[in-house]
Amino acid sequence: METADPTPQARSTDREGGPEGPPPGVPQLSLELLVHGVGGTTAQEMLGDPRVQLITGDDTAACYRRTDDADAEQRPDDYRGEPVREAYCWSNLTSGNGARALWLLLVPFMVANLAHWMRPAAPPEHPAQRLYDLLVRILALTLTVLLAAAACEVALDLTAWQCAGTTLCAADKSWMGFLSPDNSGWWSAPGRRLALASMVPLLVVGFLWWLSHRTWSAYESASPPPRQPGTSRDTPVAERTALSLNGFWYGRRLVARLRAAHTTAGVLTIAAVLLAAGARADGRDGGHTALAVTGRALAALVILLAAVTVVVVWRTARSEAAPDDESDHLVVRALPFASLGALALIVVHTGWARPGAHSHGALPGAAAFGGIAVFQGLLVLALALTAWVLQRSAPDDARTALCGMGGPAVALLACAVGGVLSGGVAQRFADWLDGGATPGQDHAPIPGPPVLLSWQASVIPVLLVVVVLVVMLAAVRVMIVSRRVAKDVPGLYDPREHPDERRTKRIAGTIAGAGLTDSAPVLVAATAAVTLVLGAGAVAGAWLSDRAPGRATEGAPPVLHAAAETAESLGSWLMSAGVILLITMGRRAYRDHSARRTIGILWDVGTFWPRAAHPFAPPCYAERAVPDLTWRMATWTERFDGRLVLSGHSQGSVLAAAAVWQLDLVTRSRVALLTYGSPLERLYGRWFPAFFGPPALTGLHRQMDDWRNLWRFTDPIGGPIRLTCDDGRRIDEGPLRDPLAFGRTLQNPLPAQILGHGDYQADPVFGRVRAELIARLGPDLPGQRPAGHRASGGCPDDRPAQGSPGAQGSSGRSSG
C-alpha cells in the first residue's frame, strides 16, 4: 500500500484545520465514506486505485483517499455532482497481528460477554434488567475461577503433587528431579513443591491481567467526540437505544473494575488450593498446632477478600450516559494487591516444614470442579427465568431468536466450552505425564485429574452425535428448499437464455444454503438443551463415582460397560483434540496470512460488543472503530459544511449504523446511509433485540436524511431491514438478481459468477441507489421527506420481497 505523506496542500486542508466552510458561491462538497466488512480489504481495492494516500489515522485504523483526491476540499469545482470517495480501513483491529490468533483460547470469555448483550428488548427501567446483567457478570466470574482451577489442576495437582511425589512418574523426567522425594532435597517437601508450582497459575492470571490492560490502551481507549446537550430529546422513548448514549463505547472504569475483581478471583483460587493442601497435613495432628490455627486465619482472610470481590462485581454495572473514565475507589484498586499479599502469606504457610508430610493420591479440592459446574447450571437456569420475565415485557417481535432465550443458551455454551478446554488440557497433560498408562486405572503411576472431567469427556461423543444429526437435518432441508426454488430460477431471467439444469441447481442450492443462517437458532437451542442434560448427567455420575469408586458401571451388562469405557476414552481424546486444534490454528495463523485473516473474521462477529461481563475476553474493536467514524463524520461536516453518504458492507454496515447513532441530530440529518450485505436485522436484530430491534432501527431511519439497503437471497449474512415508511417507500432494494446472467449471451459470453455476500458494487442497482442518495444530498440542504413522513413503528414487513428469490434487480460488488 502506498502511504506516502500527504502533500503540504493536503495537510493544510485536513490535518491542520482548513477552512470552516466553503466561501460564498463555491459549490458544496459531498463525501462518500466507505466502510469494509468482515475479513477486511485494502484501501486500493475499496477505492479502485493503486495510488492511495493516508488522510487521517494510524497503522491500526485509518482513512484513505485516492492520491488525486487528497486535496479535494480546495478544489470543490472539480467535484460537482460527484462526492469525494474516502475509505475507512479497520481490518488491523481484528487480524493485523498473528499473535492475536491465540485469543481463540479466550472463546469462553467472549461467548459469556455476548450473553450480556442478548437480553430481550424490555423497557430499560424494568427491574429484571439489573438482575439479568448481574447474573451474567457472576457467571463470567465463575469462568475465571474455572480457568484458575484448571491451571492449578495441571501445575499443582498433576505435576507437583501427584507426579513429583511418585517415584515411578518422576523417574524418567530429569526436569522434575529436584522435586522428587527420593533426592531428599529442600524442594522435595510436598508443601514446598506446591508453593513453587503455584507460580504457574499465577503467571497465567497475571498474563490475562496484562493482556486486558494492554488491549484497552491499544484498541478501546478512543473517546467519543463532544456533542450538543439535549440532542436526543425529540426521539420517542420507544425508539431510543443505548447505542446512541455518549458513553456506550467508552467504559474504561467498568473494564478496570472487572479486571481487578477477576484478577483477585484468580489469585484467591490459587490460594484456596494451597490452603486445602495445607489443611490436610495439619489436620493429622488434631488441628491444634500453630500451623493449623494460622491456616484457619488465612482461610478467613481469603473468604473476606472473596466476599469483597463478589460485592465489586455486584456493583459494577455499565454507566453509558457519559464516558466513564473516573478513577476507581481505593478499595477496588487495592484488591488485587491485597489478594497477592494473602497469597504470599499462604505460600509461606504452605511451604513451612512439616516433618513426615508426603503427597498421596489426588490433591484435596477435586470436588470444586463439580461445585463450579452445579453453580453455573443454577446461574443459567436463573438467567433463563429472568430472560423469560423480560421477554414478556418486550415488544412482540416474532423474529427474536429463541423467543428471547438466546442469552441463557449462549451462556450455557460458554460454560460448556470452558469445561471442555479445562478438561482437555488436564486430560492431555495427565496422559503425557504417566507415559503409556491410563491415569486413574490400575498400575497407573498417578490417579489423574478429577473424575468429573472424565465424566464430562464421556458425554462429548453423545453431544457430537446430536450436533451431527442437526447438521444432517439442515442438509436435508437445503435439498428440499433447493428443489422448490429451482422451479422459479429460470423465470427470473430473459426467456431467450436457454435453461441449464446444472446451472439452475447451483443457483437454487446457493439460495437454499444461504437460508440456513435463519435456522441457526435451532442448532443453538438443540446444542444448549443437550448440553444441559448431559452436563447434569456428568455431575451426577461423578458424584456417584466418588461415593462408590470404581463401581460406576458395576453390575451393568458387558456391552453397556464397554460402551461407557469407549465413550470415556473417545471423549477424553476429543477434549484434548479440541485444545490441540485451537493451538494449532493459532500457530498456523501466526505463519499464514490467509489463515490469520480467516480467524480475524471470527473476531469481527464475536468482538463487536464492549467487554461488559468479562474483562479477559478479546478486545472490542468497535470501541476504536465507532469513535473513529463518528469523529470523522462530525468534524468533516462541521468544518466544510458538507453532506455525507456513509456506505457500509457487511459488518461495516453495523459499524456505520452504530456511528450514526453517536452523532447529534443536526449532524445525523446531513448523513445518508447505504448498506449492502448487511446483518443489521437478520443477525443483530434477532440476537440482540434490545439494541438492534425494530424500534431502534425505526428511530435510526427517521433521524437520518435517508437510508437504503441492498440484499440478495444468495447472501448467507446480509438481509433486508424489513421496515416500511408510512408513505409506502421501503428501505430495502432487493432481492437483487444473482448471478447477473443465467446463461451465455452477447453481453455475457462467459458464465456470470454467483456473488453471494460480495461484489455488490458491480450491480447496476448499486450505482442507481448510490446516485439517488447523492442527489438527495443536494447542493444546499438535505432532501426533504414528504409531509407527514414517519417510519412505521418498526413493525417487521414479513411479506416476500417481490415474490420469489432474486425477483428484481441484479447483483453487485462490495467494497471489501
Automatic annotation (TrEMBL):
Residues 1-29, 778-816 are annotated as: Disordered. Residues 801-816 have a biased composition (Low complexity). InterPro entries: AB_hydrolase_fold. It comes from the Bacteria. The chain crosses the membrane at residues 101-119, 131-151, 260-279, 291-314, 334-353, 365-390, 402-426, 459-480, 522-544. Keywords: Membrane, Transmembrane, Transmembrane helix. This is Integral membrane protein.
